[in-house]
Amino acid sequence: MEVLEVLTNAGYDAFLVGGAVRNTLLGLPVSDFDLATSAKPEEVVQLFDKVIPTGLQHGTVTVMYLGEAFEVTTFREDKKYTDFRHPSGVSYLGSIEGDLARRDFTINSMALSKEGKLIDLHGGQKDLSCKLIRTVGNPADRFQEDALRMLRAIRFLSKLGFALDTKTEESLTENAHLLKHVAIERLQTEFSKLMGGKAVNLALKQLVFCRVHHYLPGLSQMASTLTKDVDLSLLETDFERWAWLSSHADHPVSFLKEWRLSNNSIKQVERLITFSLEVQREGWNNRTVYDALPNAKGCERLLSVIEQRDPNLREIDRITSELPMTSREMLVVTGNDLISWTQSEPGPWVGEAIREIELAVITEKIKNEKSSIRRWLKQWRTQ
Questions:
Q1: Which residues form the tRNA nucleotidyltransferase/poly(A) polymerase RNA and SrmB- binding domain (predicted)?
Q2: Predicted model pTM
């Protein structure tokens, strides 16, 4: 890796660390490249053309190199944690050993040199082979330093399909209440990743077993939902997963707002729930598929999980392929055409007419042609 070479050729120690090493050993794709080095941030800045000061207070900069982003952090140890989340400061170190000791879990505390030499001081490689998530050192210390690590532990369980080490699990249960000190936005980020893991069902059961769900927005009354055996792996997007979860809340929108989802995300989730309810009542037909596009398949996946059946995506494809049009933009007339033809004033009737024209076209009562629509409009206006 060129960035490692630049650092080491300049006389600094430098290693690939964290999730990149873990995924490399597991044969998984590496998307985030984190490096640890003896070089100070200002020294890293001098070595590369484009460096972004993303976390100078923690000794971190982001190096942009050949179109890739590399997070480069100076060897450090964290000073005392005062808010169960952030260290009061950091001290730079001269070697990788102390830097690895401050990390959360053994599987994330390994380092790899540019020559391919693995530095594993805390049994991370063994825990990978045993499929265990275990903290570096005393779990109570790690969780009291940074309470978010408890949710991260279960997120890794979900992502990798591993189990929690016994002492780690016991300490997580004892310290779960500290999660109330963590900002909702940070909890949401971890929980969204947890929901997208291959072992999500196991992870949700672990949340309940360790009583973590009591300290996450809206989940304290959802134990039966979280431990239900449904195939959540069928859900492909964050919107679908949040739709499934929030559909079990008394007030879905309030639930999503508690989690601080963006207004756009809440709107997308609402659409999925609304159209899924329509399909439950009517089944899939030209109108329900048209209205649900472009998320009709997401609605079907959501319904398949709720109804505990296999999704019938071929039916969605069949109906979509036979639709005369798949969006309002494909309609050959506009509101201005209707106003001009009828010599009428603009008003709510225009939107109502456009919607009725859409339905008539997609149900093949009329063709998507101006002459056909104009004849239909004349009849509709006289009703």
A1: 161-220
A2: 0.87
